[in-house]
Amino acid sequence: MSFSELGLSADILSAVASQGYSEPTSIQAQAIPAVLSGSDVMATAQTGTGKTAAFTLPLLQKLGENRSSGKPRVLVLTPTRELAGQVVDSVATYGGHMRLRTTAVYGGMPIGKQIGTLKKGVDVLVATPGRLIDHLERGTVDLSQVETVVLDEADRMLDMGFIQPIERILASLRGRRQTLLFSATFNGPVRKLAERFLSDPQRIELATPGGATDNVEQAAYLVDGNRKRALLSHLMSEEEWGQVLVFTRTKRGADKLAEQLERDGISSTAIHGDKTQGARTKALSAFKRSSVQALVATDVAARGLDIDRLPHVVNYDLPDNADDYVHRIGRTGRAGAQGRAVSLVSGDERNQLSAIERVVKDRIPTTTHEAFVPTQTGANRSKQGGPNRGSKGGGGRGNGGNRGQRPNR
Ligand code: AMP
Q1: 154, 166, 260, 397: which one has the fewest Cβ atoms less than 10 Å from its Cβ?
Q2: Nearest to 100 by CA among 140, 131, 65
C-alpha cells in the first residue's frame, strides 16, 4: 500500500514525502479514505501508530477544497496541552503549502493572548475541553462553521473527567458535521459517547489488542521495591541503554527518582502535572535534544509526548490498570521502529502484572537479575539472567510456570 493510493492530493503527498514516510501506517491506510469519504469514524488507535497524520492529512485536503471563512472549520479536542501542541505542529508540517491559520487553546496559559489570536481568524482550532468551554462562555470563539470534530484520545479525556465539557461542546455544534473519534480503548464511557455523537461511524481497529505493541519487546524484572532504583541504574549502564522514558506512579516519586538517578551519574529530569508549562516544555526539549538521558514522568504528563523512536520505556512502578500499561509501552517501538519496555516489579505488584497480562493477552517474559534477586516472597518465580529477549507470548517466560505458587493477596 502506498500513500498515492489513498486519494490524497499532490500537495499533501509531497508534504508526506518530505517527512520521509515511505508508506502509510495501518491506521492511516484505513482512516484516510474513510475521512475523505465524509463519514464519521471511530478508530482504536493510540499514540505511536501515526494517528495524528491519519486525521490531519485528509482534513487538510478537505480544508483546501473550500475557502476560509476565518472561523474554525476543524475542531480537534485533546486531553493535554502537549498533545494539542503536537497536533498544531502536524498541521503546520503537512499543511505548509496552504495558507492556514491554526492555533491551540489550553489551560495554564493566559487567556488574553488566545482571545487575540482567535479574533484574527482561525481555520483549525485545537483545544483542551476545559479551556474551550471558557472561551465559549466568554463568547470569544465561534464554532458555527465547524465541519469536522476530532476527539483525540477520547478515553483519556474521559479519564481526566472531561465528559461534561465534551458533551457541552458537541451539543453546541449545529448542522451536519463529521465526527472522528480516536481512542486507545473502547470502554463503556467511550462507547456511550460514540453512540450519542457519532452517526453510522466506520469502525477502524488495529489487529492486536495492544495496537502499537507489536514492535515492542516486553520484559519484567522481579526485584525488591527498595532496590528498583539501583537495578535501573545498573541496567542502564550495563546494557548501555540510550534514552529512557521512566514512569512512576506519583509526582513526588518522579522528582525523587530523577534526583537519585542524577546522583548515580545518569542525567535525568522529571515531568509531571505540578510543574509549570515552561518547566515541562524545557524538560521535554532537553530530553529530545538528548541532553538528558532519563525523563521520569507520571502517566498524565507523559500522555501525548511525541518522541521519535524512543528505544526504552521503563515501568518503575507498574500502572494501576492495563490501559495505562498499553499507553506507556506504546511510547516505544513507534511507527515501525523496534523498542523495549521493561517493568520493574516488586513483590506487592505481582498481581498487577498478572492482571495486565490478562488484558494485553500476552505473557510478559519475567526474570530476575543475578545481583538483584528479590528477598521477598515469590522470588523463585523465575530464573536468573537476562530476560528472554525477542520472545513474545507463551514460550518466552523463564521459569514462569510456577505462577500458581504465588501467594494470594
Ligand atoms: P502519532 O501516533 O501520531 O503520535 O505518530 C507517531 C510518530 O510516527 C510520529 O513521530 C510521526 O512523525 C511518525 N509517523 C507518522 N506517520 C508515519 C509514517 N507513515 N511513516 C513513518 N513515520 C510516521
Answers
A1: 260
A2: 65
Distance 67 CA to ligand 1 centre (A): 29
CA 248, CA 258: separation in Å to the nearest integer? 10
Q: Could you tell me if 254 and 338 lie in one domain? A: yes
What digits encode the pLDDT tens for the residues 38-48? 999 999 887 77
The mean per-residue pLDDT over the stretch 27-43 comes to 94
Q: What is the pLDDT of residue 206?
A: 66
d(CA 296, CA 352): 21
Residues with CB under 6 Å of ligand 1 are 21, 24-25, 28, 47-53, 306, 308, 334-335
- Asked if residue 242 lies in contact with residue 268, where contact means CB atoms within 8 angstroms, the answer is no
Give 183's strand partners: 44
Q: How far is the CA of 272 from the centre of ligand 1 (A)?
A: 24
Ligand 1, residues 19, 27, 82: which to mutate, most atoms within 8 A of Cβ?
Answer: 19
User: Which pLDDT score is estimated for 214?
Assistant: 63
Atom of ligand 1 nearest to the CA of 46: 2
Q: Does residue 399 lie within any of the structural domains?
A: no
Minimum CA distance residue for ligand 1 atom 15: 50
Segment 107-151, tens digit of pLDDT:
988 999 999 999 999 999 999 999 999 999 999 999 999 999 999
Mark whether 62 and 165 lie in a shared domain.
Answer: yes
* pLDDT at residue 66, as a whole number: 80
Residue 282 lies in a domain: yes
Report the CATH number that the domain containing residue 159 is assigned in CATH: 3.40.50.300
Instruction: Give the residue whose CA is nearest to atom 20 of ligand 1.
Output: 21
Q: What is the pLDDT of residue 393?
A: 35
Distance in Å, CA 335 to ligand 1 centroid: 5
